[in-house]
Structure formats: structure tokens, C-alpha cells
Write the C-alpha cells for this entry.
Amino acid sequence: MSAPSGFSPDLLAEIRARLPLESIIGRRVTLKRSGDGRSWRGKCPFHGGRSPSFSIRGQGFRCFSCGEHDDHSSYTMWSERVGFAAAVQLLAAEAGVDLPKQPGQQQDDAEEIAQQARERAERLAAQPGKSEGRDVEQEGLG
Ligand SMILES: [Zn+2]
């Protein structure tokens, strides 16, 4: 599979290598280094829980509570509410990586991915933790 929006896997890999994931997420989330120094923990920015269920290890993150997991570009799409192409541009600028010129025809892909990111963000916002499905239909009583 080729990368969406025409960015080469090498380019994305270089961005990830230059830009520690904890430095991006650390702007919004207070992170603490784990005992072995190989991972970071903090409160999950996705579901907003109070316990530090969110963990960053290497070039990926995962929340043990809500299960959200991904990498640089997905996090940036979510945090900045932008499409994949825009997220990569932001990350590339920060990492000091030059992006190749984008042909205009890639817009559709970016738009579709942006839409998916928005839907996911909305879905996550709509379910703060696991709430029980009670009091749905209380009417027939009495
Ligand atoms: Zn979470």
C-alpha cells in the first residue's frame, strides 16, 4: 500500500525519527518518564480520564483505557483538527524536513482522511468512559 496523499513512507519515517512523539504530545499532556526511561505516561488526551492510562513508547502511543493508539500524524490530525496532508506539513515544518511539492489532485484523499479524523474525534468525545446503558426506558413502570 502506498501512503495516502502522496507522501513517501521514507519521508514520514524521517519526520517520526526527527520529532519525538513525546515532544508533540507533551505540549498538551503532562508526561512522566517511566522507570526504565523507555516510555512516557500521562493522562489520555482522547478520552480525558483522570488516571495516567496513556503511554508513549518509541514512535507510537496507546491508551490502556479507551484503546486509542496511533502515531505522529494521526495525533496531529486529531489535536489540530486537520487532514492528513496538513498534519504532515505541520510535522515536517517542526522536524525541519523538506516536503516535496504536492500535486493538486491529492486534495480528495486529504479531505476524506480529514473527515475520518473528525468523525473519530466526535465519536471519542461522545463516549467519555464506559457508561452503563441503564435508564434507557423507564416508562412502563407504575
Ligand atoms: Zn484514552
Q: What stands out?
A: The radius of gyration is 18 Å. Residues 130-134 have pLDDT under 50 and may be disordered. Residues 44, 46-47, 49, 53-54, 63, 65-66, 68 surround zinc ion (CB under 6 Å). The domain at 4-119 is CATH 3.90.580.10 (DNA Primase; Chain A).
